[in-house]
Amino acid sequence: MKFWYQPLKWWGWFLYPFSLLLLGISKLRRFYLQKSARKNRLPVIVVGNISVGGNGKTPFVIWLCEMLISAGYKPGIISRGYGGKSKHYPLLLNSETEGSEAGDEPVMLFKRLGLPIVVDPKRVNAANYLAEQCAVDIIITDDGLQHYALARDIEIAVVDGKRRFGNQKLMPMGPLREPLSRLKEVDFIINNGEQVDNEITMLLKPQVCKAVDGRAACLPMLGKVNTCAAIGYPQRFFDSLKNQHYQLCKQVPFTDHHAFNAHDFEQFETNIPLLMTEKDAVKCQTFAKPNWWYLPIDAQLPDTFQEQLLQKIKDLT
Q1: N or C terminus: which one in the chain shows less Cβ crowding within 10 Å?
Q2: If you average pLDDT over residues 26-33, what whole number do you get?
Q3: Is the peptide bond before 116 cis (omega within 30 degrees of 0)?
């Protein structure tokens, strides 16, 4: 909601009682869930955030998994599978799994990484399945900071360097899921795009655009394009295209995790290339046209952080 990232208006205080209610519920929920949480036999790294909306968490998860593989580990990923609905859980992804079944982010991660990924609304069940049925030695939880039923060994919070925490109020008064004090408890804070004391700067580097329909083709990084995005913060994607000197003819934001269909794209001119995010592309592959493209994003983080994280993992074993 836009008003979360603007100076608080007088009418916003009418939402204050609901924010207090959320605070009370979240504290009670955390207290009872942590009491019964059981530690998995494998190390568990939770990647998440304390605010609503896109923070750059998915590119970080990709970087984390690729870094662990290069260090000799065999990571697997668990996810709630937001936006998907499966007939059975836990759901182990394969090359035929669609976003409507597992959610767009898990499918995108599977296509990019090819790692074991298990989806289950109850992340404890997903973690147990991954540990028992898959050849992994470390578990990455995608967006699970508030899922306290799952014990964790390392917590990593990703922060939007541009929007930060908006008006710093709890929902529905502001964008926070938990108070800012929660960040004092995590092991690492990753800042997407800015340099802030006690936070690790992550830079997102766009790659060459690829065809949504899977063809081995690339789009030159120049010229006019239409664009759309169904992510938590679409403007970040649009701004990144402008920074690459694309000329944006039409920019259309959709709600996060929007379930695309062919009719959504009738508003775009067919003679102008259409550019979307990698997460959105996995939902459009079956009906994509030849001039639809997506932009892969890679994360870059300091070598010092990699060393600190690997040392922390080694201390667990």
Answers
A1: C
A2: 94
A3: no
